[in-house]
Amino acid sequence: MRTPSHEQNRYFILFIDDYSRMTWVYFMREKSEVFKVFKKFKNLVEKQSGRSIKVLRSDRGKEYNNSEFDKFCEEEGIEHQTTVSYNPQQNGVSERKNRTVMEMARSMLQEKHLPKAFWAEAVYTAVYLLNSICYVHIPTEKRHKLEEKTEKGIFLGYSTQSKGYRIYNLKTKKLIISRDVEFDEDAMWNWDEEKVERQSVMIPKETPPQQQQEEGTDQAEMERRSQQAPGSPRRPPPSEEIEEETPPRRTKLLSDIYETCNFIMLEPENFETAVKHKVWVQAMEEEEIKMIEKNNTWELADRPKDKEVIGVKWIYKTKLNADGSIQKHKARLVAKGYSQLPGIDYTETFAPVARLDTIRALIAIAANKKWKIYQMDVKSAFLNSYIDEEIYVEQPQGFIAKGSEEKVLRLKKSTLWAQTSAKSLYSRIDKYFMDREFRRSLSEPTLYIKSQGNDTLIVSLYVDDLIYTGNNEKMIQDFKEDMMKTFEMSDLGLMHFFLGIEINQEKEGIFICQRKYTETLLKKFKMESCKTVTTPLVTGEKYQKEDGSQKVDGSMYRSLIGSLLYLTATRPDIMFATSLLSRFMQSPSQVHYAAAKRILRYLRGTKDFGIWYKSTNDAKLVGYTDSDWAGSVDDMKSTSGYTFSLWVRNIHMGFQENKLLWHNPQRKQNTLQLLQHQIMLFGLEGS
């Protein structure tokens, strides 16, 4: 290392057990100390394990290849294997471990903005974590009721083939990959596998004051490292002790770790916090302000006397991929729009967005015809539309023009700040499609279709996100290139994640689901470990507004029902249950809340469920309706439901349905007969 550690060391060496990947780290001031360190390591592990080192594999560095080192290995009966010159891959275990440790150490230092002199502490911490003992969950399918639920293992790192941890199973002596793992960071490695147990932490009643470690020789540091290394057994202090059981800290899944970091650590609430982090400074300067200036969005002006000047603030958001990893950091300027008065500062604000029914229909058609679906979004979308009103805003915090501090900004183009921004953007994009001979759907103003002979291009717009598909790749490519010339666009390629929906496009069809959203929902309401059930509701159960049970927190209940309603975008199986319980959001009871939590229990067991749209050339639209009669206990009103599907013929399976839309409302009218209600339902849904 160019920068010495606090104890003046510039080198570290890793010793790795090739069988278990257990790792020891030592720090040195000079490379020439390798021989001395190796002898120290040999004495430690041989006494701790009761086994002898048989083979040492290293590169051909001078610190390993010298007469003193060779003589020692010969006397101790150690076979010293070396790599061929300039072929480090022959010692891949060591090279890979060195890289892993350095990447972990570098990330720790950068995340906490620590000086480089702390590199030794970061390296030691990385090795400590990689050596942690862990407990792997045994699936219920592989154990009996009275058998243990976990098995002990050693954490070896992360799998590159699957989303899980690489664990060495101490019982089976095999390498396994698992996602459900608990780490016990307090436990230390014990070479005697039959005696490896979860250890209790011995805590003294009175803790003596710790003495300062004197700065000095590297010998002091190596002594300290070897004594505290994960390979050493823990010794209780020589004072009166009490036993306290310390449970292992539960380590979350990698996707949950991503999510926690994203939402807790990576989204500052104000400018003062954001400016301390480089990623947010770059998002403000290079993304937002640079794009605003490039689009000539505003100009400096004197503060008007007859116009309201709108205040602005920074909003920070982390955009995620489908797996929860970070796609990009976004910083946006927004207005305190409540200061704008309707009829004075603006007139119209409405801008349509695509319905989820439309999105599903587009996916079903694309799957049916074996088309690929692509996605783009407009960069700084609201900077691409013009405004008719005269609007002034304050200069943004952190970017006030020097010498013009008293001036304000007059908007020349729309932004996220104005009440009319969404309408202005939609109007401009709509004009773009109309000028290029697209046809706008009469029932869905955000759906555009263009036909050229037998070729078709379909585009759906959701604010600044576009999805598009068709049967002619050249037509699709020309459209994409023209859009990117007219607007500042980001080409996202094949559609994989849209509005919280995960899309998996295969040759046989398209599968959509909301697994990630479901996991987040379960975690939000602390139901990620709940017992599963096979149905969303108890069969035959009747619910009413006044059921005699205690009332619960209405805001929490409404939040849960709202989250479940969004989940019905890909889960028609919970539509009825969620719609039924939504009737009690005004004054929910414990009975209602328990029923809502039952839906969560059902979701935990079915979070992989979604909709599979089958590819075929033979399809027809089929609709079904049904209802009960006077099913509501409170007002004797009826509940109806309908679903429309794209039925496809399958040689092996007969008919298979691709669901497009569904609904499950309670009717406002009371009817005297079931037949009368069903006729009314058929007419309403058919229209």
What features would you describe in this structure?
The chain has 4 domains: 11-127, Ribonuclease H-like superfamily/Ribonuclease H (Nucleotidyltransferase, domain 5, 2-Layer Sandwich), CATH 3.30.420; 257-505, no CATH class; 514-610, no CATH class; 616-686, Immunoglobulin-like (Sandwich). 30% of the residues lie in helices and 25% in strands. A 6-stranded antiparallel beta sheet has the order 8-7-6-5-9-12, with no helix packed on it. Strands 20-21-22-23-17-24 form a 6-stranded antiparallel beta sheet, with helices on both faces. A hairpin with a 2-residue loop joins strand 22 (455-462) and strand 23. The chain has 687 residues and is an alpha+beta fold. Residues 188-265, 339-347, 649-656 and 667-675 have low confidence and may be disordered. The protein starts with 10 loop residues before the first strand and ends with a helix. It is globular, with a radius of gyration of 32 Å. The protein contains 16 helices and 31 strands. The longest helix has 20 residues, at 92-111. Helix 3 packs across helix 4.
